[in-house]
Write a structure and sequence with these properties.
The complex is a heterodimer of chains A (715) and B (152).
Chain A lengths: L3 E2 L1 H11 L3 E5 L11 E2 L1 H6 L6 E5 L5 E5 L8 H13 L6 E6 L16 H28 L6 E4 L2 E4 L5 E3 H9 L27 H5 L15 E6 L6 E7 L1 H4 L4 E7 L2 E6 L2 H9 L2 E6 L6 H13 L4 E6 L2 H6 L3 E9 L11 E7 L2 E6 L4 H12 L6 E5 L13 H13 L3 E4 L2 H6 L7 E9 L5 E11 L17 E9 L13 H18 L4 H14 L9 H15 L8 E9 L2 E12 L2 E12 L6 H20 L5 E2 L2 E2 L17 E6 L15 H15 L21
Parallel strand pairs in A: 1-6, 5-6, 10-20, 18-19, 22-23, 26-29
Antiparallel strand pairs in A: 2-3, 2-4, 4-5, 7-8, 8-9, 10-13, 11-14, 12-13, 15-23, 16-21, 17-18, 17-20, 21-22, 24-25, 25-26, 27-28
Chain B lengths: L1 E7 L2 E7 L5 H8 L18 E4 L2 E4 L12 E3 L11 H9 L8 H14 L5 H8 L9 H14 L1
Parallel strand pairs in B: 1-5
Antiparallel strand pairs in B: 1-2, 3-4, 3-5
Helix pairs in contact in B: 2-5, 3-5
Classes of the chains: A alpha+beta (715), B alpha+beta (152).
The complex binds FE2/S2 (inorganic) cluster (2 copies).
One FE2/S2 (inorganic) cluster (FES) sits at the interface of chains B and A.
């Protein structure tokens, strides 16, 4: 099942194999309403824009080519399910193949952001329905019976009056000679047989038997291995390199310096790793050399600066706060975080005279290809990218630094080479979740209504760390949201649920503070705001109020909100990355420390495609959100990260994981992605429950360094 | 450099490597047994777990010189057809997300269940606690270990 194929190979196969039905379609077409499905003649002519194919061979094997990098988000299983559903295929006869990236025709081949799903939903359905319609038509022609008497089911076309039936393979060749219909009927969702079921990952067998699939497993005959020493701290550059000792070590082929990097090249991972430690490199200052203590000062300045950029403003904020019966003000801060995918960065590159071959784990093969073409000053069509499976991404593999340096090294040493990052390289190598501090202010009137709201987001290389149109925007008459940024040599990048991974917690924890000040139940308080957004909105409302209410009520009901005597509960709800998620955390105090017992999640992501994959994404997102809120912490001394491996950087482990219960609204709305939206609400639900249990408000991550987990910091 | 003959998955493998080379890299670089994964190199994540005389060990911190004639089993050799009870349970429970940590998880679980065929939930927690899954598949890992214990 897990082969990979290039488009060129595929076209050759499609053109020469002769037998069977081949349809091409564009998984990420910009014109989602009008996806076009094209025949193999059009495909072979190379005229249509497409990035995926569906083939049905004469021996009844259905193959769906997935253009999308798979990093654990289950797309390689769930997307083909959609095609197979409309095709009425027998899932057992469907295989899924990863398509390589090798021409401009593969559009928008990227995994990152949960946006991939809604974009593709209609296209995938239409592709499957088109093939089905053609097979049914072929059968009606073969039997010479009216089309209306033929229907498809489980991989067969059946003639209703005679009971005759043919499998898809037997009809594929004839179907391929028919014109591709432009208008096909999609199924009614009540007739879905696959969508909404829990189907196992198509790659399970390969994973559990240890087949080579990841970038680090990639091998080419004659390939060299390299490790790269990068400046040890941010704001530093290489001053001098003494590589004599390293070069003299066994198995070392070369040591080359380029762009502040010193690469040690050899044939064995262990040998290059040892030699690399024998390098003598002096660094000098290139930019600001920052420590975490400096960041504290920087945040304090930014929060009081008058240079912030206004992101959204409603009403008259100043008077609202002046006339308020009560004002609540609070600050929340999060540290930098490395992505820490289990498979460290690595990439293979072979720069030859006639072109460049790249292979490895990337979420953005397209920008990797463009970047390498630019770097080497060659045309893009000279660069091919083979996508391996990704051992996690979390946003890190949206960056292309590790692809470019592999290509550059290969072009210098004129050899095929795989660059391997150690865990230390990976964790100290930058592109972090930015550190941010928020200041929230709320104005309550005499009856406890939130009439004024202010949020300032101050970030280090965070761009705009607010999401100014998120709830409670639209529900508060007088509102000001602004942001300000400090530029630092410490590099940052999108990190699973960019910005909202921390903003979600901070906002939901602050709203809990406000509800408490208003002497209102946290859920009632939010429902009141949503009611206000519905009946008299303050400016644009950029979220679906009813869907948000839907998940709030579902979470309250399933968690027994307000009815439990034995545990303390905390609530949060967040709309991000196109889905709605509400969570309730149950907390108990044991031996003076709050212990998270259980987390309930109510999720509205529209139609649930693969129930197994969907539950897994939500549970994984919650574990990730909880783990990083509790423990994640990357600090700096003089530009150098203090943590560079798992002995110093704490990731959540099995015993720290509470029970998680997931409930889907499943309302049939077009599906949205699930890789991200379950993460942002978790920290808030947990912090709010811990407050109820212990009376301590957690305002900074990681929680483990705060009361009630740690002693109060001396002031 | 020295020559080592290793007993892996019921076969003899030979490598010319330096004595301090961790078993992990000999498996991966010299023998092409890449199912065993590198995660941290310091014994802190469990991605590199293999069996040494039936016990789960971290191959990233075990020098090849210390292996001798002890029997090594890697994920590739856990079963002939991927049908070890732990592997079957992993498929049935649909554990894997990115999948990178799973070989190490499976090897840890298989050695654990051999010593503790009918584990309690706490025993499972303790046995699996040292294996990191960055994707957070812990719930299903636990469920799969439980299921595997009913299959053996
Ligand atoms: S790679 Fe051996 S324990 Fe992490
Ligand atoms: S499945 Fe990705 S690290 Fe465990």
């Amino acid at each position: 099942m897990a082969q990979s194929t290039s488009r060129r190979d595929f076209l050759k196969m499609a053109a020469t194999a002769g037998g069977g039905l081949v349809l091409g379609f564009n998984w990420f077409s910009a014109k989602a309403e009008m996806p076009s499905v094209v025949s193999k003649t059009v495909l072979a002519a190379g005229k249509a824009e497409f990035n995926s194919f569906l083939t049905i061979s004469s021996d009844n094997i259905i193959t769906i080519f997935s253009p999308n990098p798979e990093l654990g988000q289950n797309i390689k299983t769930s997307f083909p399910m959609v095609v197979a559903e409309e095709l009425d295929a027998d899932w057992k006869t469907v295989s899924v193949v990863q398509a390589a990236l090798d021409t401009k025709k593969f559009q928008r081949q990227v995994t990152g952001g949960s946006g991939a799903v809604p974009h593709s939903w209609m296209i995938l359905r239409k592709a499957g329905a088109t093939a089905r319609a053609m097979l049914v038509e072929a059968a009606s022609k073969r039997w010479n019976v009216p089309l209306s008497e033929c229907s498809a089911s489980d991989g067969f076309v059946i003639h209703s009056t005679s009971g005759k039936k043919l499998n898809y393979g037997e009809l594929a060749e004839e179907a391929s000679k028919l014109a591709v219909p432009s208008d096909v009927k999609l199924k009614d969702r009540k007739d879905f047989k696959l969508i909404g079921k829990a189907l196992r990952n198509v790659e399970n067998k390969n994973i559990i038997t240890g087949k080579p699939m990841f970038g680090l497993d990639f091998h080419r005959e004659g390939m060299l291995l390299a490790m790269i020493q990068r400046p040890e701290g941010f704001g530093m550059k290489v001053k001098s390199v003494d590589a004599a000792a390293a070069k003299a070590m066994p198995g070392i082929i070369d040591v080359v310096t380029f762009k502040n990097k010193v690469a040690v090249v050899g044939k064995s991972t262990w040998q290059i790793n040892k030699a690399r430690k024998a390098l003598k490199i002096e660094y000098e200052k290139e930019g600001n050399i920052e420590s975490s203590a400096d960041h504290d000062k920087i945040f304090a300045e930014l929060l009081n600066s008058d240079k912030a950029q206004v992101r959204r403003m409603e009403g008259d904020v100043e008077s609202a706060f002046k006339n308020a019966a009560k004002v609540i003000k609070s600050e929340y801060q999060c540290p930098f975080l490395p992505h820490n995918p289990m498979e460290p960065m690595n990439f293979f590159a072979h720069v030859r005279e006639d072109g460049v071959e790249l292979a490895g784990p990337t979420q953005t093969p397209d920008s990797a290809r463009k970047g390498v073409a630019r770097l080497l000053n060659i045309s893009e069509d000279k660069v091919t990218v083979e996508i391996t499976r990704l051992g996690g991404g979390f946003g890190r593999r949206l960056m292309t630094d590790y692809v470019l340096e592999a290509a550059e090294l290969s072009s210098i040493i004129k050899a095929p080479v795989k660059v391997i990052w150690t865990r230390e390289d990976d964790m100290a190598g930058g592109s972090y979740r930015p550190s941010v501090r928020y200041r929230f202010e709320a104005a309550l009137d005499a009856s406890g209504n939130m009439v004024g709201y202010k949020l300032r987001g101050a970030g280090i290389n965070a761009g705009n760390p607010t999401r100014e149109n998120n709830f409670p925007s639209g529900a508060v008459d007088h509102l000001l949201i602004d942001s300000i940024e400090h530029k630092s040599p410490i590099t940052t990048a999108p990190w699973r649920a960019p910005i909202t991974n921390f903003l979600g917690y901070a906002e939901q924890a602050f709203l809990d503070e406000v509800a408490e000040a208003a002497k209102n139940d946290p859920i009632e308080f939010r429902l009141g705001l949503l009611e206000k957004a519905k009946t008299s909105p303050a400016g644009a409302v950029r979220y679906d109020i009813d869907r948000m209410i839907g998940v709030i009520k579902l979470a309250a009901e399933k968690s027994g909100w307000g009815t439990k005597k034995d545990v303390s509960q905390g609530f949060s709800v967040y709309f991000s990355h196109a889905s709605y998620v509400a969570q309730v955390a149950d907390v108990l105090v044991k031996a003076g420390k709050p212990v998270i017992q259980k987390i309930y999640a109510a999720v509205d992501c529209g139609e649930v495609i693969n129930l197994s994959g969907a539950r897994q994404q939500v549970m994984g997102g919650i574990v990730d959100g909880l783990g990083h809120a509790m423990y994640g912490n990357l600090t700096f001394k003089n530009g150098v990260p203090d943590q560079n491996n798992y002995n110093k950087y704490r990731l959540i482990r099995m015993k720290e994981v509470p029970e998680v219960d997931v409930f889907f609204v499943n309302n049939g709305i077009s599906p949205t992605g699930l890789g991200e939206p379950a993460l942002p609400p978790t920290g808030g639900a947990v912090a709010n429950a811990i407050f109820k249990a212990s009376g301590k408000r957690l305002k900074n991550q990681p929680f483990i360094l705060e009361e009630p987990y740690a002693k109060a910091k001396s002031v | 450099m020295a020559n080592y003959k290793l007993q892996i998955n019921g076969r003899t493998y030979q490598a010319d490597v330096e004595p301090d080379t961790p078993l992990l890299w000999v498996l991966r670089d010299d023998f092409g047994l890449v199912g065993t994964k590198y995660g941290c190199g310091i014994g802190a994540c469990g991605a590199c777990t293999v069996h040494l005389n039936g016990q789960a060990i971290r191959s990233c911190t075990l020098p090849v010189a210390a292996v001798g004639t002890q029997k090594v089993v890697t994920i590739e050799g856990l079963s002939q057809n991927g049908d070890h009870p732990v592997q079957k349970a992993w498929d049935e429970v649909d554990v894997a997300q990115c999948g990178y940590c799973q070989a190490g998880q499976i090897m840890t679980a298989a050695a654990f269940l051999k010593n503790t065929p009918k584990p309690t939930a706490d025993q499972i927690d303790n046995a699996m606690h040292a294996n990191i899954c960055r994707c957070g598949a812990y719930h299903r890992i636990k469920e799969a270990v439980k299921l595997a214990s009913t299959k053996a």
